[in-house]
Protein 1
Amino acid sequence: MNIDPIAVAISFGVLLLSLTIHEAAHAWTADKLGDPTARGLGRVSLNPLVHIDWIGTVLLPIIAAVSHLPLIGWAKPVPVAIRNLRHPRRDFMLVAAAGPISNLLQAIVAAGLLRLVWSPAQPTDPGVLATILFLAVQINLLLAFFNLIPIPPLDGGNVMLGLLPPGLAVPYSQLRQYGFIILYALLLTAAASAFIMPPTNFMMRILIP
């Protein structure tokens, strides 16, 4: 296998920062909407150590990087006491949406900075900074659309629970107990790519023409 350890390290660093901001966004939003649980656990933080999940943040990304697969992953879920939220159903949906929204914002900011330091028309090598910014755009878009897969406990599933009428939300929530089984099946069969890659490629063409 042809593995570039520097490229793997850079990609992993970008992913770790992106996941850290993603989880901090969940925690900050929950705190602002009335639930201090995450703040009390130190999760309103940009310290990646408080958010790491050893499988989703370390093992899966390393396997993806050395296998030349799309770099995605997840961090330790932010606990939310729904009863503390001022408008539980609506606010839990907003807390869930905060993570993917943070990734989309990170991608937009990175794309803007990339335009300042490099242009595709330049014949020269893009350099380390441009490479990091390009990876930040790509990885954050992958994370955003991965997390928007509408399967609990992913953010997309929790957003869906807030959008569905109560009569449908209750049975839909029962998928949560099988969520990771379904998710692993989607990842292993590449079905997840069919959901993630089209919007990622579309946004890449917009952000980096």
Protein 2
Amino acid sequence: MTYDVKRAHQDLYAPKNREWALVEVPEQRFVAVSGTGNPNTAPEYTRAVEALYAVAYTLKFASKRTGRDFVVGPLEGLWWSPDPAVFTARAKDEWRWRMLISLPDWITTEDVKEAAATALAKKNNPAIASVEHETLHEGTCAQVLHVGSYDDETPVLTELHTVYLPANGLTERDRHHEVYLGDPRRTAPDKLKTVLRQPVSPRG
């Protein structure tokens, strides 16, 4: 059977709730690459995403040859800044990001290193050398499905921090996480679907 993270974890990759709710996120493995800057204009971001997909598909084809296939998952991102105000102000040049693609648990760090070396030999993209194997265990998170433009996320995130978290005795923990279920090159901005996720802890 082909592993598909969207089927294995439907509550995390195909949620229906348009209001904030709590979910438990298990330990997950990813290919990951980090950078800084506006995702709409920074060449570094474009190269990073291309590098991620190059390594992910190299891993998929190598794994399939051993009899274990998987569907390459959607693009995901961790976002943060020393000054959280840059997000509400949409000061995108100051954003820091770590882009991710989910992996099945049988893929190892050594597999990722080998796949990166193979991909780098085929593609002229230095960002491939920066792709890493990452393990995340986010645990309890507040999560919501956002439908619409990425630039329309601000009111949803403001509600999280000013209404939902205080009302439920929670505080944010770790980096903001997004899962991109639509392709902005092929989908109208008002139809884009994005999972917004924030690890949380009990306040105090």
Protein 3
Amino acid sequence: MELNLRGRTALVTGASKGIGLASAECLAAEGVNVILVSRTQADLDAARQKITAQYNVGVQVHAYDLSDSRNVDKLVAEHAGIDILVNNAGAIPAGDLQQITEDRWRQAWDLKVFGYVNMSRRFYAE
């Protein structure tokens, strides 16, 4: 499918595996340069290798924990001119309400909800 996105740049969070990686691959297939963000450098390196082996696009990676808004600020400073933002980061814990501690819930929501809000607010302002 041709979406006329060739040459644009997308920043994808939670991009080292799962839905985030699949999103980055689909964008790369359309000729979009991708910036992959997740917490684990080794997973990011594997994702970059996979994408660059299949597609002729630029791939940058950042191992940042987006529950820390200082890392969001770093991304905006380095990539203010992106065309597409895919907010996908999140690590919602498995288990029922009684198994998961309040601290663990708060950590998960700091990444999933506040990370999403902070990314959107800061990139939209650019």
